[in-house]
Amino acid sequence: MTGGSAVAALREFAGSARLAQALTLIAVGLAFSTHAVRSLIGWPGLLAALTALIALCGVSLVARWRAVEWYGILPLTILVFVGWCAASVIWSATPARSAAGVAYLVAFTVLGIYVALMRDTIQIVRAFGDVLRFLLVVSLALEVLSGVLLDLPIVFLGIEGDIASLGPIQGVFGSRNLLGFVALIALLTFVIEWRTKSVQRGRAIASVVIAGISLLLTGSPTTWIALGAALVAALALYGLRRAAPATRWNWQAALLGIGIIGIISAWLLRIRIIEILDARAEFDVRLDVWRELSRYLNQNPLQGWGFVGPWPDRIPYTWIELATGRPHGSALSAYIDAYFQVGVIGAVLFVALLGIALARSWLLASTRRSVVYTWPALMLVVLVVTSFAESFALLEGGWMLLVVCAVKAARDMSWRDALAQARSAAGG
User: Entry's PANTHER family (predicted)?
Assistant: First the structure.
């Protein structure tokens, strides 16, 4: 083979759809298995894998440059929020750690953008389905190995082996709440696969069962609340998709009003809801963290302490952990984490990112014929609700999922187009 033909072959391979598919699977897999990767090969190994993956994605993107539709690829909300996080390095209490945290955030932002650009929505659903199916099966297998066959914890993965007593289990994710979050988005993804007939019926049913078992065994109250919100959203979308186009805008407005009333009611009845879910212990943990955070928020309310992502062993985070008597990797709320790290401005930008992405994806899901458009909307509902009690939406796989959904929604419909289309349907 001559040099020219070898270069042409490499260029063809770099621009192939098969490479894009493989890189998408690896990106999703790495983003949602960071705990397991760190446990096996440490931070240096994870960062090396992440760097190599980004380099390969860059090569693939350059090779497929002309095939990409660049119009509206990035919502401004992502650019502004990430830009504000990057700017926080200037006033950060720990500038070197903030620079590393921003680089880590940007890395998963790049992966999310690559996935959203290279694959259409059904291909993304399939990629998430394949990866999450594998991770849940591995998690359950290791839990059975630890709790039933060996009756010993797998310490380096954080698996305690409690499956014999019906949980809580952690799988390869390091915490029951993260496993619950992954199991929930997997469950919704598997249902979309089933509805779109993109996998065989038997495989879809088995996948739903696996996700359901994982969800039950986590015993995560946060996940149950998010599941309830997702089911309500799914029912609302089911009704909207079958409503006459002329009345759909009125139904949207009615649902918005009902949603606001529901949120206010949930807040007023929060203590009773916590008691029903037997979540008093988890709520008390979060309350302790938020109480300690409030002591430092007043010092930098507008700009925050500087973005760091996962909490480092640095002041003031170590002070908060000492005061609460336990280590924390986050503020246990994405909204409060954003407020603490990048201030009021950053928190507002983060809420705007979530809200605009949800509005766009919701309008798409309620107007497009294919059921696959409901996937981004449901993912964002889960992220919005989970972010009240966990910081997954700011970290690794959760952030990448948010970027993927936001970019896909922005590419398919800008907010101006969405409102114009809805009003046109209502009027005509």
Answer: LIPOPOLYSACCHARIDE BIOSYNTHESIS PROTEIN PA4999-RELATED, TEICHURONIC ACID BIOSYNTHESIS PROTEIN TUAE
